[in-house]
Amino acid sequence: MKQINLSHAMFSDAKYLLYEDDNFKVETYKFPAGVEALKVSNNRGYLTLLPFYGLIIWDAVFDGINLKEKDGFTQPHWGEQIADTYGAFEFTSGLLANGNPGPEDDHVQHGEAATARMDHAYLEIGDDDAITVQSDYEYIKGFGDHYIAKPSVTLHKDSGLFDIRQSVKNLSNYAPMTLQYMCHLCYAYVENAVMTSNIPDEAFQLRTSIPAHVHPTPEWTKFTNELVESGKMIDKLDDASHYDPEIVFFSTDLREFTDKAEFRMELDDGHNFLTAFDTASLPIVTRWILYNADQQVAAYCLPATCTPEGQAAAKKAGTLITLQPGEEKEFHVITGLEK
Fold this sequence. Notes:
- Helices cover 6% and strands 43% of the residues.
- It has 339 residues and is mainly β.
- The protein has one domain: Beta-galactosidase, Chain A, domain 5 (Distorted Sandwich).
- Strands 1-9-10-11-12-22-18-17-14 form a 9-stranded antiparallel sheet, with no helix packed on it.
- Strand 9 and strand 10 (130-140) form a beta hairpin.
- The chain is globular.
- The chain starts with a strand and ends with a strand.
């Protein structure tokens, strides 16, 4: 295993070839807004990673297919919460709290770790035809929580699939900490794509609460009422006129159905997206669909420890995790273009 420590000095406005071998190429550069980026490529495509900014996956393109949602952001922007730079393919939603804050919550949307300024970042070149970018971030507050998070992204030779990992360790010597985590995958909306999984549709229910950022229209209210009455799960993207504002489904505990969940979005041209994970650590899935002139997303599978309704909702639902002093949790998601 070869490790290259990344420093801020390695990034400038011009692209710089940091590493290249027969299977991979890694380039460093800065976006105009000043955010450092790594373009990690194999012979199928590339990931654009932000190693010092939450280890956000900004872009994911394989076989010429852009996996990311359409949105208004042309580049990442520095901010204090993910809404300030909501143009990523994937980000960490959490970690002390996750999702859209409700009336009883005081956390930022999708949590503090989404836009964390990472302390260190590394490039790891393995012997198993893989390349990994890992970052770490120590969160500490006087009279508050203290943890270290270590996200990583691994790209493989000749593959459009990649691994997203996150580990969280409570560094306090005496105080427990709350933990909520969602691997927030903002996949592209592809007309007529079909969403499948090894989980029955009956495991999902429509979100009926209305977060502060959702502004219902009469047409949307009528459509959602029809969904509630029918119990229908949206499995095909053939009705874009009804997805503004967003339509969101939550699962029950997936551990009741399988140890390893597999969700796919199958495209007309024979390609498909895959997201797979162990339900022991990620027992809840959210499906989020939104289509308007500014944003088009089909987040067919958001694996998580909880729903994205905020910390108070997770506590009421019994899905709020408590990490004891010194305790560590690890999460692993496989995702990308399967074929």
